[in-house]
């Protein structure tokens, strides 16, 4: 599948759903000086579980098993966690267009032990098929505090059969409507900046540096189709690139730039050959969004976050 940057819903082409993968989470940012929150997407595990663990988890059609990855950050504070479930409204059961009321209960369960406890109970009214969210912040935080990354859930829908409502859970070929868990977390107590090769803008100098910049999708009207994240630190580069910066490690954007900078330092370059401050390292960010057919798409979009800046 060819990778394309998501566009606004009005002009966005339908994109084939990519399967969510617990091995491709949102990376947690290195700098926590500002209150950055990084979304993590945990996927339901439906197959290829090791040994008896897979048998225990998949015997129930109402069971969900999530694995949450976080790339080495062990101490996480969960700001928000929501379970997304899709409910199908079946035809020819009630009068078309009538509202169908059901009660959905989400339990936490221990595989093999048989014990479970109620996490959330929600009354849901449905007129048509669609997505509904269930808050699980405290439950996910409890899992994290135990040093675990597994979330075992059991979903029960009271009244669904009688009114023709079917929650899409496991063992289904409907990949675009499979359940998923979105977790917004940040590193707890980590306020120290991890040193990078590039310069960080701090107002004390005018050299090429990385300026932190938060992009809020709500401010540009993209929150109607982007599910997560609600925003992110995209950052940008600014500052001067004097000739002597050619000798600063990591300041050149490429080997070609490093060679040209040697000419600049020696006064051998044409007067019009000016250096400018540009991104030298960009990172990928995962996104969840709706396509034109209201399918939920998970994409790893490249070159979204400016990590380091240099001169070119």
Automatic annotation (TrEMBL):
GO terms for cellular component: extracellular space. Signal peptide: none annotated. The keyword DNA repair does not apply. Residues 194-312 form the TGF-beta family profile domain. InterPro entries: Cystine-knot_cytokine (IPR029034), INHBB_C (IPR000381), TGF-b_C (IPR001839), TGF-b_propeptide (IPR001111), TGF-beta-rel (IPR015615), TGFb_CS (IPR017948). It comes from the Eukaryota. Its main location: secreted. Gene3D superfamilies: 2.60.120.970, Cystine-knot cytokines. PROSITE patterns: TGF_BETA_1, TGF_BETA_2. It is found in: Secreted. The keyword Secreted applies. SMART domains: TGFB (SM00204). GO terms for molecular function: cytokine activity; growth factor activity; hormone activity. Keywords: Cleavage on pair of basic residues, Disulfide bond, Glycoprotein, Growth factor, Hormone, Secreted, Signal. Belongs to the TGF-beta family. Inhibins and activins inhibit and activate, respectively, the secretion of follitropin by the pituitary gland. Inhibins/activins are involved in regulating a number of diverse functions such as hypothalamic and pituitary hormone secretion, gonadal hormone secretion, germ cell development and maturation, erythroid differentiation, insulin secretion, nerve cell survival, embryonic axial development or bone growth, depending on their subunit composition. Inhibins appear to oppose the functions of activins. This is Inhibin beta B chain. The lineage of its organism: Eukaryota, Metazoa, Chordata, Craniata, Vertebrata.
């Amino acid at each position: 599948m060819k990778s394309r940057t998501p566009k606004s819903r009005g002009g966005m082409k339908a994109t084939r759903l990519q399967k969510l993968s617990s091995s491709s989470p949102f990376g947690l940012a290195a700098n926590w000086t500002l209150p950055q929150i990084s979304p993590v997407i945990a996927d339901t595990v439906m197959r290829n579980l090791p040994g008896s663990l897979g048998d225990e988890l998949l015997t129930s059609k109402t069971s969900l098993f999530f694995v949450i990855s976080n790339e080495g950050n062990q101490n996480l504070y969960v700001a928000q966690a929501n379970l997304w479930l899709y409910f199908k409204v079946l035809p020819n059961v009630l009068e078309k267009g009538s509202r169908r009321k059901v009660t959905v209960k989400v339990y936490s369960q221990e595989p093999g032990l048989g014990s479970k406890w109620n996490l959330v109970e929600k009354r849901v009214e449905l007129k048509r098929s669609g997505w509904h969210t269930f808050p699980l912040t405290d439950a996910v935080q409890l899992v994290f505090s135990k040093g675990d990354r597994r979330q075992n859930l059991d979903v029960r829908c009271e009244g669904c059969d009688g009114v023709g409502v079917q929650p899409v859970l496991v063992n289904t070929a409907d990949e675009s409507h499979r359940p998923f868990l979105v977790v917004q977390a940040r590193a707890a107590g980590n306020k120290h900046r991890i040193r990078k090769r590039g310069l960080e803008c701090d107002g004390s100098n005018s050299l090429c540096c990385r300026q932190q910049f938060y992009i809020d999708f709500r401010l540009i009207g993209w929150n109607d189709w982007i599910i997560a994240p609600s925003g992110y630190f995209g950052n940008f580069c600014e500052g001067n690139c004097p000739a002597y910066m050619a000798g600063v490690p990591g300041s050149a954007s490429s080997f070609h730039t490093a060679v040209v900078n040697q000419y600049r330092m020696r006064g051998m370059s044409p007067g019009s050959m000016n250096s400018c401050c540009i991104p030298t390292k960009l990172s990928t960010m995962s996104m969840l969004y709706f396509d034109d057919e209201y399918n939920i798409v998970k994409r790893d979009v490249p070159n979204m976050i400016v990590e380091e800046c240099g001169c070119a």
